[in-house]
Every structure is written in C-alpha cells, then in structure tokens.
Amino acid sequence: MTTTTPQTSAYAPTDVESDVECDLDADVGVDVDPQLVAPDSAPPRPWWRDAVVYQVYIRSFADGDGDGIGDLAGIRARLPYLRDLGVDAVWITPFYPSPMADGGYDVADYRAIEPLFGALEDADALIAEAHAAGLRVVVDVVPNHSSDQHAWFRAALASAPGSPERARYIFRPGRGATGELPPTDWKSVFGGPAWRRVTEADGSPGEWYLHLFAPEQPDFDWTNPEVVAEFHDILRFWLDRGVDGFRIDVAHGLVKDPALPDIGAEQEQVLDAWAGTDHPFWDREGVHEIYRGWRKVLDAYAGDRMAVAEAWVKSPDRLARYVRPDELHQAFNFDFVETDWEASAFRGAIDAAMSVLAGVGADAQWVLSNHDIVRHVTRFGGGSKGLRRARAATLLMLALPGGAYLYQGEELGLYEVEDLPEDVLQDPVWLRSGHTEKGRDGCRVPLPWTRGGPSFGFGGGGSWLPQPGDWGGLSVQAQDGTPGSTLELYRLVLALRRALPALGAGNGAFAWEPGPSPDVLTFRRGADVVVVVNFGAVPVALPAAGEVLVASGPLTAAGELPADAAVWLRTN
Ligand code: NOJ
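A: This is the predicted complex of the input protein with 1-deoxynojirimycin.
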C-alpha cells in the first residue's frame, strides 16, 4: 500500500474504500501523545468558552423507570457514558412539571420536576453526580411563555380584565364591533393566529391573550417588573442547587412592541423577511436590558456560571449583540445549521460569525443539530453519503475556535426518522399546521443503547416514539469499541480536541490556508494543526507535510482525502 501518511497516525489509510467504516484505532482516543498536552502555564479560561456541551432531550435519552419516557434516573445512569465520550457539559431540555403541549417547553412550575422525569432530589443527585464525573450541568429556562396550567396563568384567567394577575401576561381586548377579532394579525410559530380569546368569569366572550407558540403557551409581559423579579428568583433557585448554566429558550422573543402593530400580509412573520430592526416581537432592543439583569444574577455566583441564548436572529451582527461583555456568555450559531454542504457556504458562515464575535470579545458556539432541526445526517443527503458528510462536518466543527453543542445521538450517526406513523406524532406543529407539517418528532426518537431488546435498551419497556428497526446496528453497544464507528470517531476527536494545544481550551489562532480546489476548505489552528475538508466530488491530495491525527473516513489507497471527508493533520 502506498501512503503519504506515517503509520503512527491515529487513522491509518486502508486500501479499501468503504462508505462508512474507517480504520480508527479506538484506543488512540485515551492514549494521546504526552507531547500534545497543553502546558500548565496556559492562561485559565472560563470552562464555557470552548466547552463541548452535549444536549440531552430528556424524553428520549434514557428511560430509568421503564415507562417509555426518558427521565432523570436514565440520565444519571448514563453519566459515565457522557464522561467517557469526552464532553465537558450536559444541557438538559426542560424537566419541569408540564402538560407536555410542547414537549416540556410549556412549564407549569419552574421550581419543580415533572413527575414523569423524577423529583427534585433526582435533579440534586444528578447535578452532584455530574460534577463528580467532571461534567457541568446546563438547564433550560423558558422565559418567553409559561404553560396555561401555570399558577399565574390560572390566576389570570380567574381574574378580571385590568387586574394585576392579567398584567403578567399579554391580555388585550379584541378588535371589531364586539371584540371578535384578534388584537393583531400576528401568527403563531406553530401555525394559526397568535391570539386566543378567553371566556370571562360571567361566561361572556372576553379578552384575548398572546401566544407566539401554542395556545397552551401564553407569553409573559416582560414590561412587568414582577415577571423580571420572578425570573431572577428562578435563576437563583437553580444556581443555588448547583447548576452551571442556562440555555435560554426563545431568547430573542421576550419583548413585544407595546403598540402591537399589525405585521401586514406583505411581510412574512419570520424575521428574515423583515426589512428593519423593529420587528414587533423578534429581536427587539429591549431584550438586552433583560439579559444585563440576568448577567448580574449569574455574576453574583462563584464558579463561572453561564447562559446561552437560543436566538434566531437575522444576521451574525444581531446575534453578537446578545454576547456583549455585560450580557450573555454564548449564543448558538444557527447560521451554521442552515448551511448547505458546500465549501463556500461553510466558509462564509464561519467567517461571518467569527468576525463579528471578535468585535465583542465572544466566541462562536457551533451546532449542527438539535431537537428542533432535521438531523444533519439527513440534511446532508441521508444514507451513507449523509453519514460521511456528517462525520466530516463534525471534524470541521470541533476544530473551530469557540465551543460546540452536540445533540444526543449524533455521536451514533442517527438519522431523522421521516416515516413516523401519523398517529404517534406529538409535536404541536403537526396539530397546529392542520396535519400538513409533520414537525420535529423525527429528530426526537429515543436513543438505541443496545443491539436488541425492548426499545434497544432505551428503557425496560417501549419508547414513546417508535424506533426504526435498524437502530440496533447504530446502538451504543454495536459501536462501542468498534473501529471506525461514529461513536469511536467522536470519542477520538473529543480526546484529541482536549489534548491538542491548538484546539479547544488551547485556543490556537485560526487562519485559512489555500486548498487544492474551491471545493476544499483548509485551515490552520495554532502552530501545528491543519484541518482539510473535502466538499467536492473527487479525492484530493493532502498537504505533503502532515501526519494524520484523525480522519472522518478512510483515505483512498493513494492516501488522498476522498469526497465528503475531513482530516486533522499535525504538521510538525
Ligand atoms: C424553542 C425550543 O427549542 C422548541 O422546542 C420550543 O418548541 C420553542 N422554543 C417554544 O418554547
């Protein structure tokens, strides 16, 4: 076999090119060359600046009590798995009491645990055990709306128009002769009008309340100081219990234009189509004052507590405003998840994010998948091609400066389940779209842990969404210790990212380098790591001076980087 790479590399090219498998040595992930380890003199950086955070969608991660729904006991049992995977932190989606109109993003009580998921003691134990395992814990906070079963909203419904109870939400009289029309033309993100009319205590048709999401998710009124104070208190409740940070749901939506203007048929409801920066409810200036207040709450605690914004805004410069020094620590980079499999598109998204973030002294938070997005194996073409690209994208993402968020199951190469039967769908999008959009359940199918057994080891019984029959082959058990598996690739890449001074906390300088074709992205980190990603259709030669540290798949027999593949090289 002719090869341009030394046999000491973590991945030795084979002379057989296969679609998915690659000849990774699983042991290399834990046996990193001591010369690669960052020197003790490296300046301390807060843990979150370059952390790799693993998102647990609690309903679908692991089921500890066999009821078919994931829970805190399931997460606790799998903490060793997460530690061994090599992530720094775990973000857990909402675990609060909820009628589950939107998978827990309809919170009925922000200071308790949904019985399906466990109890407060389980959360305390989880936080302690995660810390003991060296993992930070980030919890979801949902400040734009509560559940309609929240005590405040029930009190609002039981109270009269104009009462302090109603003033915590956005109640308004309707338009039309008898108030029969909604106050504005705003549409719910999940479809249909964003207002619902209530029936007053005397049985008469009454005011309308705003719900940017499902009707079961009434929006808070953030101009009310009581709402501001309540959320400061909720943050402190969880900070006191030891959480390391918060993921802020709909961070860009809290403030509404008090004039409640119509949007008009000519303008889309989505921000992308909005001409100015004064959309009536997305990304308004007022949200920043809220996060300045939250920052003060977080800064009062020791231990580098942080918050990450889920903010779907129009441009990287608008996103950078959320991570100014006195605001939030991080914001997800969603431009990255919207990027097609194309070199110029990825380069553009990376450049755009990094240039504006540098201006505010913040780092990018790269993300390829989450519980609201079609899994990236499927976005990138599905099948073996989608998986090859997904693995390459992971090598690209985890070599970039800043932090990264992984979505549960991407380390197994899970794909979107696009053929879920209609009668199992639970996403409110399915209902609210009049059964025209299937929604997000396809990326929320419970994880396979074992090759066989009920629900492939997800729990002792079934699973709340059915798993595809071939998921046993993608299970943790099937991939654990299997050379070339996606799980072993993630373990290796995460171990290298920790160990290499140029990457992760080492924070080496980033610079693009010329590549062999416009379809290839090449960049250098620090003094000695070069990353090459081939988005094109034909194999390309790798730089002559480079030892392969890890490759997303097999190189060709000639030692070239095939289509849809990426490699990390050490150049000296
Ligand atoms: C964003 C969450 O990620 C999504 O799952 C939820 O439906 C909406 N916010 C509303 O809370």
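The first helix runs from residue 72 to 77. The pocket of 1-deoxynojirimycin is lined by residues 102, 105, 142, 213, 249-250, 310, 371-372 (CB under 6 Å).
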